[in-house]
Specification:
By secondary structure, this protein is α/β, with parallel strands linked by helices. The chain is built from ten helices and ten strands.
Length: about 290
């Protein structure tokens, strides 16, 4: 069943597909490879795309071709990108210049969702992880710039990624528009129960990335290879599904949007014909061994 028909309503009324595709790992020096991948995904019914840096031109070409063919209209698609907050300078100027370049590459006049990622501006030459706070970057100023772009109808929704609850509270307390989404790592080893509850209370939809990948944020786990965990494999066997499908379904049943990075497009979308029993959801929740901020 095409994943694009199942949607969740954001707090600004915009509807977003619950299952999409991250293009980050498909960036290739062979532009045609990325182009063919995206056109195939659209043909299968994917409508939500996280257009990670480096792949925008091929994605734009693929979308334009499918629109010309009459397969989709622009309004049917939900395009997402992220802004890295790692530069000094006027926020509006930085965001506007980045957005202008992205729109040109994607060959579109607007983006459905823009996300502020890694909200720390670093000194020239420093790595993002070298900064321990938001002392170099005014998150509120950055958010105000995003709000202006929304008012100009260049962005339909705005969200956050890798922000703490305290940082999100700063946005909620000082800005006009609340975040529509929070983009976080989530899977049975890191089910983010506290953060998900916080977002639910604030009307923020959670997007799960890395639902199928080896976890990067489970320091308290003895190994974090989610796909190859024997317990996940046992559950998959009972449902006659793959571990990947079980993990995607788990995230969907938590009530959130899921954007996997794996290339098994058909397999990933075949998750709407079964339901994980409450006892299996509770069992998988018990695997969690760490919480984010």
């Amino acid at each position: 069943m095409p994943p694009g028909i199942f949607k969740v309503k954001l707090n600004n009324g915009l509807e977003m597909p619950v299952l999409g595709l991250s293009t980050g790992q498909y960036v290739s020096e062979n532009k045609k490879e990325t182009y063919d991948f995206i056109t195939h995904a659209i043909d299968l019914g994917y409508r939500l795309f996280d257009c990670t840096y480096g792949s925008e031109e091929a994605i734009g070409d693929a979308i334009r071709e499918k629109i010309i063919q009459g397969v989709v209209h622009r309004k049917d698609l939900f395009l997402v990108t992220k802004f890295e907050c790692n530069s000094h300078g006027p926020a509006l100027q930085l965001v506007e210049s980045t957005l202008t370049a992205t729109l040109k590459k994607l060959q579109t006049t607007y983006l459905d969702l823009c996300i502020i990622r890694c909200p720390v501006a670093t000194e020239k030459g420093a790595k993002l992880e070298d900064s321990e706070s938001d002392q170099y970057c005014d998150i509120v100023e950055m958010w105000n710039a995003m709000e202006i772009l929304c008012m100009r109808h260049l962005i339909k929704a705005i969200g956050v990624s890798t922000l703490s609850r305290e940082q999100i509270d700063r946005i909620l307390n000082k800005c006009t528009k609340p975040p529509q989404v929070n983009y976080v790592e989530c899977h049975p080893f890191l089910n983010q129960s506290e953060l998900r509850k916080y977002c639910e209370d604030k009307g923020i939809v959670v997007i799960h990335y890395c639902p199928l990948e080896e976890s990067r944020n489970t320091d308290n786990c003895d190994g974090a290879d989610v796909i190859n965990d024997s317990r996940i494999k046992e559950i998959a066997g009972r449902y006659r599904k793959t571990p990947e499908q079980i993990l995607i379904k788990y995230s969907l049943q938590l009530g959130n949007v899921v954007i996997p990075k794996k290339k098994n497009l058909m397999e990933n979308m075949n998750v709407f014909d079964f339901w994980l029993a409450p006892e299996d959801m509770s069992y998988m929740n018990s695997f969690s061994c760490n919480e984010s901020r």
